[in-house]
Write a structure and sequence with these properties.
Elements lengths: L1 H32 L2 E6 L4 H15 L2 E6 L10 H6 L6 E5 H9 L9 E6 L1 E6 L10 H10 L3 E4 L2 H14 L2 H4 L3 E4 L4 H6 L5 E5 H4 L5 E6 L8 E7 L6 H11 L5 H6 L3 E6 L3
Parallel strand pairs: 1-2, 1-3, 6-7, 6-8
Antiparallel strand pairs: 3-10, 4-10, 4-11, 5-8, 5-9
Length: about 270
């Protein structure tokens, strides 16, 4: 009786092992076949990318893992600093000037850069506040001089305003002391809280913020158009998926979503 019981238990254990082993193998195989791509995108392209990534993932089955960070600056989240730490990433999307530097440094693969969208700078005030005149260069000058506090980002648009536009207007000495460069936080959020009377940032970064009113774009004479571009990280572990995603983001299929976010599609491969 004992021998029969032992034989039965042994047989069940063996049978269980035979079943379990293929099951574990199938789980491992399933994990191995999961396709994914890791992306770090800067603020101006964030709204467009959120919608595009969702659509791309649904159409292709490729899992898109997204992180965020400014195109430049000293914060740990800034894309150049992330790549310097060798954080996991396959594709980066940021202001073209920043991307070109990453190519020079060997952190983004040469020849992989593609312009996706053209971004313009807009002005915002807190919801319910008086709407200032920014229709002309003289109007912008007067509005800045009259404002009690001004905020701009620590990325491409803010660097331009602080280092170039104020000098061009001849009011740098008057405005810089009451201006703030905002790191790692949407400028619109600062304006919505009442911490700045005027806010300057890319239109696509202001559009998603609640509690503000977008006055409009800077006039052409003061405007700076910034290309936001994608590139494949040189140490990417998913290069095939990275190239496929960049091709999708720069294709006509992406244009309506890019426009809706406040950018104009660029979608032309940059010269290496």
């Amino acid at each position: 009786m004992r021998a029969a019981s032992f034989s039965l238990l042994f047989g069940l254990s063996l049978f269980g092992g035979v079943v379990a082993a293929p099951l574990e193998a199938r789980k491992t195989q399933a994990k191995a076949t999961v396709r994914e791509v890791h992306v770090v995108t800067s603020g101006a392209f964030t709204a467009a990318f959120k919608a595009l990534a969702k659509k791309y993932q649904r159409e292709t089955g490729v899992r898109v893992v997204t992180e965020h960070g400014p195109s430049m600056g000293d914060t740990p989240q800034a894309i150049p600093n992330r790549l310097a730490r060798h954080e996991e990433a396959d594709v980066v999307i940021l202001a073209r000037g920043g991307l070109d530097k990453l190519v020079e440094q060997g952190r983004v693969a040469c020849g992989s850069a593609v312009d996706l969208g053209l971004s313009k700078i807009a002005v915002a005030v807190r919801a319910g506040a008086p709407v200032p005149d920014i229709s002309t260069t003289d109007a912008v000058r007067a509005t800045l001089l009259h404002a009690k506090s001004v905020a701009w980002s620590d990325s491409a648009s803010g660097v331009y305003i602080q280092s170039t536009m104020l000098d061009r207007l001849g009011i740098a000495d008057e405005v810089r002391p009451k201006g703030r460069m905002i790191p790692a936080t949407p400028v619109g959020t600062i304006v919505a809280r009442g911490e700045a009377e005027l806010g300057f940032q890319q239109l696509s970064e202001l559009k998603p913020v609640k509690g503000i009113r977008i006055v409009g774009l800077l006039p052409d004479a003061l405007q700076k158009v910034t290309p936001f571009s994608a590139g494949m990280v040189s140490y990417s572990t998913h290069p095939g998926e990275a190239r496929a995603l960049i091709a999708y983001l720069s294709s006509p299929r992406a244009f309506p979503i890019i426009r809706d976010s406040g950018l104009e599609p660029a979608a032309q491969k940059a010269k290496p």
